[in-house]
Specification:
With about 230 residues, this protein is α/β, with parallel strands linked by helices. The chain has one domain: Class I glutamine amidotransferase (GATase) domain (Rossmann fold, 3-Layer(aba) Sandwich), CATH 3.40.50.880. About 30% of the residues lie in helices and about 15% in strands. Strands 3-2-1-4-5-9-8 form a seven-stranded mixed β-sheet, with helices on both faces. It has a two-stranded parallel sheet with strand order 6-7. The longest helix is centred in the N-terminal third of the chain and has 12 residues, at about 25-35. It is globular, with a radius of gyration of 16 Å. The mean pLDDT is about 100.
Amino acid sequence: MMKILIIVTSIATYESGLETGLWLSELTHIYDKAKEQGYEIMIASPKGGAIPIDPESLKPMVLDKVTKAYYKDSTFMEVLNHSKTLKEVENETFDLVYLAGGHGTMYDFPEDTTIQKIVREHFENEKKVAAICHGVGGLLNVKLSNGEYLIKDKKITGFNWFEESIAGRKKEVPFNLEKGLKERESVYSKAFIPMTSKVVVDGNLITGQNPFSSKEMAKVVMEEMKK
């Protein structure tokens, strides 16, 4: 049986106090597809315990059927309220490490050395590593054993600065993710139309641009898992 680790944020607010957290669809779609395949799924976060959900991701205009069903599923929400800590799972081996997004990740993913260790070890052991939207920020500071950044020269995508403007979060976020990815010398690309789906595959590294990529991301990841 294939094992999947989904890493989510523990951060519930921006520095201003405005609520944020996990963007729920960036978890539910991959969770749903993995469940269909009978994969073993583990959800972990830096602090463990209850996962904060960004209220913006629950608004009717963005809450799709799959995500709405999971949000109303008490069993699933119980799982989400009892996530493992990263320290509890850091020595386990998974077939896929998946970094879900949400603005909360911008605060606790980039500098988390346990995330860096998990991602590096799995990537170097030819396991799949995937990240979506702001979760891609968790790849920024991952260095391989040779000292080079994992994303250097890799084809990659992630939430871009113009999309940050559309979301009204340019003054809230702690850094510009698009700029950061380019500074690491990744081969960054984005959809021609902002807030539309884009998924990029580069070997065992799979990235999705934004929440609207959640469905396609889950489909592509499942296809890559079968290779």
